[in-house]
Amino acid sequence: MDFRIHALDHQLFERYFIMTDEELSALNIQRMIVDEKPGYPCRVSLEDADIGEEVLLLPYQHHRAASPYQASGPIFVRRGINRKSYVVNQVPIMMNHRLLSYRGYDVSGIMKNAITDKGINTPSVIQAIFQNQDIYYIHIHNSSPGCYNCEVRRA
Fold it and tell me: What is the pTM of this model?
């Protein structure tokens, strides 16, 4: 079963990079300089940011469903990075070294399945979740901190 992983659109975040730290603080956003790798996974590129890069840590509503499962949480985005597109069945390398939470939702945004597994197993976990025809999309999160990574759809 084929799937495609979707990163966030960079255009959602570009305006924040030209703001002052005071303006960002008023929006609960922090500007940071990466000091370790891995450690700052960008949700626009789905790659770990390099040491010395500027990133923003900001709140993001990643599940806008009209259901009890609507959710938001913190994410990192890198400066000057365009949205990366992934080909069918391609998994970003940054997922391989993380413990991930996979959450399958139906068309109404109701969670129908949840699995925690090693990122290296991502293709098989996605395929297992999509065996249920009621699953419309999957959200992948970093398991321990619970931060949203990306969305997966059938290809």
Answer: 0.95
146: exposed, middle or buried (Cβ count in 10 Å: 0-12, 13-18, 19+) = exposed
pLDDT score recorded for residue 135: 98
**Rounded distance between C-alpha atoms, residue 48 and residue 95, angstroms:** 9
In this prediction, the residues of the chain whose per-residue pLDDT falls under 70 are: none
For the chain, what is the mean pLDDT? 97
Neighbouring CB atoms inside 10 A of 115's CB total: 15
Cβ-Cβ contacts under 8 Å for 24 (sequence gap 6 or more): 16, 30, 31, 56
CA distance 120 to 112: 23
